[in-house]
Amino acid sequence: MPDKRHVEVSINGETYSGEVEPRLLLSDFIRHEAGLTGTHVGCEHGVCGACTIQLDGEAVRSCLLFAVQADGRQVRTVEGMTEGLPEGELHPLQQAFHETHGLQCGFCTPGFLMSLEPVLLEEGELTDREIRERLAGNLCRCTGYQNIVAAVKLARERVSAPASGANED
Amino acid sequence: MGRPSRRREDPRLLRGEGRYVDDIDLRHQLHASFVRSPHAHARVISIDASAALERPGVRAVFTGADLVGEIGQAPMVWHPKDTEVLVPDSWPLLRDRVACVGAAVALVLADRRYEAEDAAEAVEVGYELLPVSAHPLEALADDAPLVHPEFGTNVCFETSMGGGDLDAGFAEADVILERTIVNHRIAAVPIEPRGALAEPRGDRVALWTSTQNPHLARTYITRQLGWDEDRLRVIVPDVGGGFGCKANVYGEETLVCWCAAKLGRPVKWIESRSENLISTNHGRAQTDEVRIGARSDGTITALQIRVIADLGAYHLMFTPFIPATTAVVASGCYAIPALRTDTVGVFTNTFSIDAIRGAGRPEGAHIIELMIEQVAAELELDPVEIRRRNFIPKEDFPAQMPHGPVYDSGDYHGSLDVLLEHLDLEGFRRDQAEARERGVYRGVGFATYMEACGIAPSKIAGPSGNGLDFSMWESAVVRVGTDGAVTVQTGVCPAGQGHETTFAQLVADRVGTDPSRVKVVWGDTDAIPNGMGTAGSRSIAVGGEAAALAADRVVAKARQIVAEVLEASPEDVELADGRFAVRGSPDRSMTLTEVARAAYITDEMPEEFEPGLEASCFFDPPGFVHPFGAHAAIVEVDTETGRIEILRYVAVDDCGKVINPTLAAGQVHGGIVQAIGQALLEKIEFGPDGQPLTTSLLDYALPTAAELPDLELDRTETPSPVNSLGAKGIGEAGTIAGTPAMVNAVTDALRPLGVEFINMPLSPQAVLEALRDGARDAAPSAS
């Protein structure tokens, strides 16, 4: 039995601590130790992006990190996106995915949301091509990506010009 | 119906509150890990699990020997009357001999997944290597190593389908072309791999599994285990994509049920991506030898195809059936008077072929759509004009084809007309010519496809017809509760298609209520009468029709209730704008909620009145539905690097009446991109020794957003006469049309450089090789 290490990871502002094997993947820690199953595992080798989370504000693959590497650090997952919002409301990016039909099976979606949330805050115009490049680290097999591009554009419009009826459905 | 509506599935999935199999953890569950053969063909000499059993957390190791008398053969459901299909022995854990890499030989159960995977590596299996046939053409050679020596051949089956006078057709032809079209092996790659979790519950077992087919899973798992069907409850949570590969019932599902019953503990297995790429079914894998004859005006007179279908080593449920369906759509949209398709299924020492999105029809469309442009080029005809000369005319529908099928409805000129409105072909040809002057090579490729889906009319597909063991009707229950809210139970089973939204829309429309008052229940064999799942673009055309007809029965009873309460004749009660009103007296009316109250509080109803307001329906379609359309791709090929850029992709699809246009478009987007993936990037490869070379997503490349254009979509609407919705299917259309459009476009781009024909995948290497060969062919002969 490998030696266990103590870790304390802040996930969406709450501290999760435990004794873990050094080899335990951060994705498995988030899903099976912290019980936050919105982060999905699609390939286990860092290609598909389904497991993307934000670590200290930066989008990273949680299947390419060990839980011990997140010790003492801040993790944000899809479950954190609606925190602080009124009951029933979605984050502007989630709302845009909903309105543009930017998801089908939904398995890759949390990873896309985590990768794309920082893109909403990028300044200046982004062309469709530039938005597509920002999606290119995440794989989706259902949508052909087109409506995800549309979701990013819609959410960026809303974030730069808020209060435009973002929650009619 | 016909309105875009946001999906009710979305909020839970967007919040990370979806519930996929691996999101469910049960107390005291064990984790399963499989020991799989690393060899393509070998005798299993010994299995020593002693070291594995000593590892931490390990509770049990099972091998094939433990299953003797416990678990029966893996199911295969195609037994055509007049064709012998060889069926090799196949169990969830193989015994004595393995015939492909990835075949499972042992199963380890441990308290934690990491422990199970460690212990699986500690199981020592002794193998004696046997000779390998990894490629179907080599496997057909006289002296080829036998995949299953007991058969004395690698030929699994041979079938023929055709009609008309082939000799006369070729005799009439002014030109006859022959091509060998390779439709290479691909994988479905849902982003959620497979997974299953079984829980013992008294003398029953509950199984959560990532499947498209809960009731067939129940039937075939219990049949293998010798259980009554009702001993197993199959529950389908959210499914992260299927694309055909989750329509199968797999040995891993049977094994977790057996282990849970045997050990009295829940047992979970989650597939790794590497397992997914070697031991979830692959698709396509055809080599198609094609001969086509045409008159000089472009009229096709004869078509002959030999489908050499790589089946892999073992049968999954539909393995040999899939390539046999290519023959059905071989002539595409065209009135070809004589055609014949001979199909030979070949065993190889590779993993099994089975359904992937389109399942036999993409191969057929690819053949005919490539060949029609080959003929056009040969005769120097316009690729659009040659199609128009051969289209089955609109007035011929329903169209009886010479090889047997009846196409329900179609307007092939109509969808092509709309495509051309979007395309500006003349403008592109000018641009193409100018670009060539600058050494820039652009091309346009078309695909006017037709497919057959809405599986399946039992009289055509069942045991006395094409030979499937079962009938593929669909069932639904529509129940109006005491408060007027509606529940729909359906036997189809979505993996992202949005049925909770579309079924609510179509039933709400029929019963006169708002979709928000309709709840859709799916994916639970204890909750749904029965079903055949989601596959073959059947959900709306068969499952939706069952729901619509059940809703009609509810409406018929509602009219009786209204007639009783309002003292009118049932024939005079009309449903319009959400009210059941007496004809001629619009002030005498009831809402569905009022009708529901009267259906359940029945003291004032006549004695013979049966309380309640619900109906069920099993719908067996009278025929297949035949979606069609016209797609065009415009590409630019970098002749230095071989890289292909897609400049435009325009698609006009006709799937009859549409329930939700937004969701229909989403299906087309995904289908086209899957086809682009096959055309440019994706290929499952094996070495000559049968070793899989594409075992991660680093080796098996899926398309990303960066290499795709915005797809331009439109629709025409030609209703189907075989269901009351007028609906066809849309799930597979994009995948069926996409590969020929792409290959034709690249061929068109490179034709001035001597490239007449090229096979997928159009990797930079393949493009550069074609350019080199084209330049050589175009050069003056050395002799």
Question: Notable features of this structure?
Answer:
heterodimer, A: 169 residues, alpha+beta, Ubiquitin-like (UB roll), DNA polymerase, domain 1, 2 domains, five-stranded mixed sheet, globular, disordered C terminus, B: 783 residues, Aldehyde Oxidoreductase, domain 3, Aldehyde Oxidoreductase, domain 4, 3 domains, seven-stranded mixed sheet, 28 strands
C-alpha end-to-end distance of chain A: 52 Å
- In quaternary terms, these chains amount to heterodimer
Tell me, briefly, the overall form of chain A. globular
SSE order of chain A, as H and E?
A: EEHEEEHHHH
What's the CATH H-level homologous superfamily of the largest domain in chain B?
Aldehyde oxidase/xanthine dehydrogenase, molybdopterin binding domain
Unreliable runs of chain B:
none
Kindly state the number of beta strands of chain A: 5
Please summarize the sheet with the most strands of chain B.
Answer: 7 strands, mixed
Number of helices of chain A: 5
Characterization of the model:
The complex is a heterodimer of chains A (169) and B (783). With 169 residues, chain A is an alpha+beta fold. Chain A folds into two domains: 5-80, Roll (Ubiquitin-like (UB roll)); 92-160, DNA polymerase, domain 1, CATH 1.10.150. Chain A is built from five helices and five strands. Chain A has a five-stranded mixed sheet with strand order 2-1-5-3-4, sandwiched between helices. In chain A, helix 2 (92-100) crosses helix 5 and helix 4 crosses helix 5. The longest helix of chain A has 15 residues, at 146-160. Residues 164-168 of chain A have low confidence and may be disordered. In chain B, the strands form seven sheets. In chain B, strands 3-5-1-12-9-10-11 form a seven-stranded mixed sheet, with helices on both faces. A five-stranded mixed sheet of chain B has the order 7-15-14-13-8. Chain B has a four-stranded mixed sheet with strand order 18-26-27-28, sandwiched between helices. Chain B is of the alpha+beta class and 783 residues long. The model of chain B has no long low-confidence stretch (mean pLDDT 97). Chain B folds into three domains: 10-130 and 199-269, Aldehyde Oxidoreductase, domain 3; 370-451 and 624-778, Aldehyde oxidase/xanthine dehydrogenase, molybdopterin binding domain (Aldehyde Oxidoreductase, domain 4); 473-619, Aldehyde Oxidoreductase, domain 4 (2-Layer Sandwich), CATH 3.30.365. The interface between A and B is large, with 59 and 54 residues.
